[in-house]
TrEMBL record:
This is SDR family oxidoreductase. It comes from Azospirillum cavernae. Belongs to the short-chain dehydrogenases/reductases (SDR) family. InterPro entries: NAD(P)-bd_dom_sf, Sc_DH/Rdtase_CS, SDR, SDR_fam. The lineage of its organism: Bacteria, Pseudomonadati, Pseudomonadota, Alphaproteobacteria, Rhodospirillales. Pfam families: adh_short_C2.
Length: 261
C-alpha cells in the first residue's frame, strides 16, 4: 500500500464528511485514506468485518477519523442503515463515493446466469442508486453535496466476455448524467471516475500477475495506475476546485482509451 504524498495532506476537505462504499480495501481504501488525510471524517462500508478493522487501524494511524460499517451493497436496507449510522455519528454526509464493486471471470453471454447478473448489477447499480437515494435528502437540506460514482474504462469500450460487468458500469454513467441535472438546483454535483486497469488485490486475484503485466505493456504510459492515483481524481472532484464539474466522466486510465483497447 502506498504512502500518502505530502501534497495529499492539504486540508481542502476539512470539516466535511465522506462515505465510501467498499472502502476497506483496494481503491476504496485509497479514497478513504486520502480524504481523511485532507481533513474529512470518513465512513467506510464493507462486507468483511476483518477488512474494516484493518482499514480503520490504518486510517487512525495516519491521523484520520473513520467509522467502519458492515454493509452489503446489494441490500437496500443495508444502504439506508449505513447512511443513517454515518449521519448519526458525524451529523451528515457531504460526499458519497459509490465505489463498492465486484468482478469475475470472463464469460460469454450464454454462460452468464441470473445469479451472476444480479450480483453484478446489484453491487454496482442497485447499491449506488440506493446509497445515493439515502444521502440526497440531507444534501438537499444543506444545499451541498458531492456524489462520485466509480466506473471503469470498460464502460466506454467493448470487451468480449464482460457484458454484465460492462453493462453495470455503463449504467453508472447514465445515473451520473441524470442525477447531475436532477440535483443541480441544490448545488449537488455528480461525476464519474472511470479508471483503466488499477493495481488492487481484486485485479490480481481476477487476472493473475502475468495477465496484468501483459495488459500494462499496452498502455501508452507503459503501466497501469496505482490505486492512489485514482484516489487523487476522486478527492479533486470532492473538493472546492471541482465546483463547476458535474455530469462528467474523468478517466485516469494511462491513455488506454485513446488507442481504443
Amino acid at each position: 500500500m502506498t504512502t500518502i504524498p505530502a501534497g495529499g495532506r492539504r486540508k481542502d476537505l476539512d470539516g466535511l464528511v465522506a462515505l465510501v462504499t467498499g472502502g476497506a480495501s483496494g481503491m476504496g481504501l485509497e479514497h478513504a485514506r486520502l480524504m481523511a488525510a485532507r481533513g474529512a471524517r470518513v465512513a467506510i462500508t464493507d462486507v468483511s468485518g476483518l477488512a474494516l478493522e484493518q482499514a480503520q487501524e490504518r486510517i487512525v494511524a495516519e491521523g484520520g477519523v473513520v467509522l467502519p460499517l458492515i454493509a452489503d451493497n446489494q441490500s437496500v436496507g443495508n444502504a439506508r442503515r449505513a447512511v443513517a449510522d454515518a449521519e448519526r455519528a458525524f451529523g451528515r454526509v457531504d460526499i458519497l463515493v459509490n465505489n463498492a464493486g465486484v468482478s469475475g471471470k470472463a464469460l460469454p453471454v450464454a454462460d452468464i446466469d441470473e445469479a451472476a447478473f444480479d450480483r453484478m448489477f446489484g453491487t454496482h447499480v442497485k447499491g449506488a442508486f440506493f446509497f445515493t437515494q439515502a444521502v440526497v435528502p440531507g444534501m438537499k437540506e444543506r444545499r451541498f453535496g458531492r456524489i462520485i460514482n466509480i466506473s471503469s474504462n470498460f464502460a466506454m469500450s467493448g470487451s468480449a466476455g464482460a457484458s454484465h460487468y460492462t453493462g453495470a458500469k455503463a449504467a453508472l454513467h447514465g445515473l451520473t448524467r441524470a442525477w447531475a441535472v436532477e440535483f443541480a438546483p441544490w448545488t449537488i454535483t455528480v461525476n464519474t471516475v472511470a479508471p483503466g486497469l488499477v493495481e488492487t488485490p481484486l485485479t490480481l486475484d481476477s487476472l493473475g500477475a502475468d495477465e496484468v503485466a501483459r495488459r500494462a505493456a499496452q498502455f501508452p504510459l507503459g503501466r497501469i495506475a496505482r490505486a492512489d492515483e485514482v484516489a487523487f481524481a476522486v478527492a479533486w472532484l470532492a473538493g472546492p476546485e471541482a465546483a463547476m464539474m458535474t455530469g462528467q466522466v474523468v478517466s485516469p486510465n494511462g491513455g488506454i482509451s485513446i488507442i481504443g483497447i
